[in-house]
């Protein structure tokens, strides 16, 4: 099988999206790509700057999984900075099994109409036609997600070919940089979705951070060799080592169920948090959602964290992650 | 922090949600005569230390909710009366007096600048764009400023009350960048029709600054320099006087 329709765009270094370390001091008047595409007058659409820029606007926020317009409204009222529209939350995908696909576009459109915050939706790994469909609907972000059943066991989507930005999951630095080189403007940990168990998200975030720390003290020769070892593009690894962080925004995802979980991931260096099943599988979704939103803002203030963690009712039932895990380990999907 | 007030200026950045770290980096890199001390504002005690405030981009609904929960809405409204505030994108929405396309049930604003804005006025993320801007009053005025517009708000109307300070327009985009189909005033042959408020992307009212785009996402520090030099420093001597 070939991937016919996607124009091949040469991989180029994404501009540093954080305003940090701008060695040249030259203004980024010209976007890195698509300068000539669809440019109305002097404007340029779908540049890497606006793709990673939206992720920067989501920082310090919580993105919540919702399955209908009513849940989307609850999430917006609770202070979500974006919602993820999907047919079944990961815990239900685990429970019911079968092939999990992109959601019905009409359901996504209802959610778009119900809220004013950005709306994201998931496509299967490698399924670039699902991505084309979501881009045509005009949502704000696509998650190429291991939570859905992969459509391609070798290739991820060429995300440079789209105007709409992508977020992708990663377990370690090599995986994160491979996704960025394919055009992802936003990275999240994979964690283990639908378990309410934060242990895998912690593992993934710790591994990304420790690999970045390692790379940041390496010589050029060592970086060349390390790039081969972790199968990452050298230029992205070098940029990461210089910045001492990923060159795009990095959220936590997969198993976050409480305000304390969210604050833990923030203290481990994440820029924000995705909460999937953790909200609408708990007893009091509105209150828990609001508490998690506050915990991401005040993640360094244990006194406030204590106040907002009070009386939230039972959290979702958590699952231990072992070989008997129903639905299996999702984090192993993606390559 | 306890320096004599003459040699430094304290600028707060509202750090509830959004791109506050980017503003911090930009301010840190400014080279000015006065030392700039930066405070990330999450509670009222942080705000009380500040001579000026920047409200960053992010989600205006999220920032407003967190501000209310942190007890910051009223203190910020008071702050606006005597000290300069700059809002970028979501921050510009919060600074406005009226908003269209608010979330269902409405959303809270600080009402510091007499303008009406529409959220997501250009459309969804697919319509987000970059465009070079001509800006009045920046250092090196002939060099265009890189405007990054992300789900940006659109200015619908300027409605200063008689007692308000006048509104000064400092940058516009070309009318051809506006979303098609809905014209507020019919544009004349001039591309940047002075009568169509929707082309306005940066403006000042008194000491307050409002931009619908994101100078903090660029490598160009001229807007941050402008805010500190033109909006903040002139107010330092006359702390107790009214805005103007």
From TrEMBL, chain A:
Binding residues annotated for D-glyceraldehyde 3-phosphate, in chain numbering: 206
Q: Which Pfam families would you find in this protein's record?
A: SOR_SNZ
Q: Where is the active site?
A: 122 (schiff-base intermediate with d-ribose 5-phosphate)
Instruction: Report residue spans for region: Disordered.
Output: 1-43
Name the source's superkingdom: Eukaryota
- To which pathway does this protein belong? Cofactor biosynthesis; pyridoxal 5'-phosphate biosynthesis
For this protein, the record's PROSITE patterns field holds: PDXS_SNZ_1 (PS01235), PDXS_SNZ_2 (PS51129)
Ordered alphabetically, the record's keywords are: Lyase, Pyridoxal phosphate, Schiff base
Q: Which residues form the PdxS/SNZ N-terminal domain?
A: 48-253
Q: GO MF annotations for this entry?
A: pyridoxal 5'-phosphate synthase (glutamine hydrolysing) activity
Q: Where do the annotations place D-ribose 5-phosphate binding?
A: 65, 194, 255, 276-277
According to its UniProt entry, one GO biological process term is: amino acid metabolic process
InterPro entries named among the record's database cross-references: Aldolase_TIM, PdxS/SNZ, PdxS/SNZ_N, RibuloseP-bd_barrel
Reactions that this protein is recorded to catalyse: aldehydo-D-ribose 5-phosphate + D-glyceraldehyde 3-phosphate + L-glutamine = pyridoxal 5'-phosphate + L-glutamate + phosphate + 3 H2O + H(+)
Compositional bias of kind Low complexity:
1-11
Q: What class of enzyme is it?
A: lyase
Q: Known EC number(s)? A: 4.3.3.6
Which family is this protein grouped under? Belongs to the PdxS/SNZ family.
Alphabetized PANTHER family for the sequence:
PYRIDOXAL 5'-PHOSPHATE SYNTHASE SUBUNIT SNZ1-RELATED (PTHR31829:SF0)
> Mind telling me which NCBIfam families this protein's record contains?
PRK04180.1, pyridoxal 5'-phosphate synthase lyase subunit PdxS
Which HAMAP family does the protein's record reference? PdxS
Return the protein name: pyridoxal 5'-phosphate synthase (glutamine hydrolyzing)
Source organism of the structure: Ganoderma sinense ZZ0214-1
| Upper taxonomic lineage | Eukaryota, Fungi, Dikarya, Basidiomycota, Agaricomycotina
UniProtKB/TrEMBL annotation, chain B:
Q: Which InterPro entries match?
A: Class_I_gatase-like, PdxT/SNO, PdxT/SNO_CS
Annotated residues for binding of L-glutamine:
58-60, 119, 150-151
> What's a BP term from Gene Ontology annotated to this protein?
pyridoxine metabolic process
Reaction(s) catalysed by this chain's protein:
L-glutamine + H2O = L-glutamate + NH4(+)
Q: What is its EC number?
A: 3.5.1.2
Q: Which UniProt keywords apply?
A: Glutamine amidotransferase, Hydrolase, Lyase
Q: Does the keyword Hydrolase apply?
A: yes
> One Gene Ontology cellular component annotation?
cytosol
Gene3D superfamilies linked to this entry = 3.40.50.880
Q: Where is the active site?
A: 89, 214, 216
As one GO molecular function, the record gives:
lyase activity
Q: Which family does it belong to?
A: Belongs to the glutaminase PdxT/SNO family.
Alphabetized NCBIfam families for the sequence: PLP_synth_Pdx2 (TIGR03800)
Full protein name: glutaminase
Q: Which organism is it from?
A: Ganoderma sinense ZZ0214-1
């Amino acid at each position: 099988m070939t991937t016919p329709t996607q124009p091949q765009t040469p991989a180029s270094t994404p501009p540093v999206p954080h305003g940090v370390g701008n060695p040249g001091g030259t203004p980024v008047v010209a976007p890195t790509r698509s300068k000539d595409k669809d440019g109305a007058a002097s404007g340029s659409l779908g540049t890497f700057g606006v793709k990673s820029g939206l992720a920067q606007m989501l920082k310090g926020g919580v993105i919540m999984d919702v399955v209908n317009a009513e849940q989307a409204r609850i999430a917006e009222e609770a202070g979500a900075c974006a919602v993820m529209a999907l047919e079944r939350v990961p815990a239900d995908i685990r429970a019911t099994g079968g092939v999990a696909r992109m959601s019905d576009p009409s359901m996504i459109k209802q959610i778009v109409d119900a809220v004013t915050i950005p709306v994201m939706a998931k496509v299967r790994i490698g399924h670039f036609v699902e991505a084309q469909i979501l881009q045509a609907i005009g949502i704000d972000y696509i998650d190429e997600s291991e939570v859905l059943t992969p459509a391609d066991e070798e290739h991820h989507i060429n995300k440079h070919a789209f105007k709409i930005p992508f977020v992708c999951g990663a377990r370690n630095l090599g995986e994160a940089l491979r996704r960025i080189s394919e055009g992802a403007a936003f990275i999240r940990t994979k964690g283990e979705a639908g378990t309410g168990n934060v242990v895998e998200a912690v593992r993934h975030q710790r591994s990304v951070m420790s690999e970045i720390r390692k790379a940041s003290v390496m010589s050029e020769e060592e970086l060349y060799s390390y790039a081969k070892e972790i199968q990452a593009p050298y230029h992205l690894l070098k940029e990461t080592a210089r910045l001492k962080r990923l060159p795009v925004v990095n959220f936590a995802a997969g198993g976050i169920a409480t305000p304390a979980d969210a604050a833990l991931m923030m203290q481990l260096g994440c820029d924000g948090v995705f909460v999937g099943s953790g909200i609408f599988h708990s007893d009091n979704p509105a209150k828990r959602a609001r508490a998690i939103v506050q915990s991401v803002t005040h993640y360094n203030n244990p006194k406030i964290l204590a106040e907002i963690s009070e009386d939230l009712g039972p959290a979702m039932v958590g699952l231990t992650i072992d070989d008997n895990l129903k639905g299996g380990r999702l984090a192993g999907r993606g390559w | 922090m306890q320096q004599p007030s003459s040699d430094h200026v304290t600028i707060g950045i509202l750090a509830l949600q959004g791109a506050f770290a980017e503003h911090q980096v930009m301010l840190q890199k400014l080279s000015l005569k006065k030392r700039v001390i930066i405070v990330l504002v999450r509670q009222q005690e942080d705000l009380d230390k500040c001579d000026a405030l920047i409200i960053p981009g992010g989600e205006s609904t999220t920032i407003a909710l967190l501000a209310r929960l942190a007890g910051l809405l009223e203190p910020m409204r008071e702050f606006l009366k005597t000290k300069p505030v700059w809002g970028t994108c979501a921050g510009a929405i919060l600074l406005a007096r009226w908003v269209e396309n608010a979330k269902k049930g409405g959303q809270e604003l600080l009402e510091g600048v007499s303008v009406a804005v529409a959220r997501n006025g250009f459309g969804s993320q697919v319509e987000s764009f970059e465009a070079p801007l001509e800006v009045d009053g920046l250092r090196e005025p002939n060099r265009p400023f890189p405007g990054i517009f992300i789900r940006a708000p659109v200015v619908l109307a300027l409605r200063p009350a008689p007692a308000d300070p006048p509104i000064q327009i400092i940058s516009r985009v070309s009318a051809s960048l506006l979303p098609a189909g809905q014209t507020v005033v019919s544009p004349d042959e001039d591309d940047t029709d002075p009568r169509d408020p929707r082309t306005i992307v940066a403006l000042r009212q008194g000491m307050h600054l409002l931009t619908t785009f994101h100078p903090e996402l660029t490598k160009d520090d001229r807007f941050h320099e402008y805010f500190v030099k033109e909006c903040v420093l002139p107010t330092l001597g006359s702390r107790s006087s009214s805005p103007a």
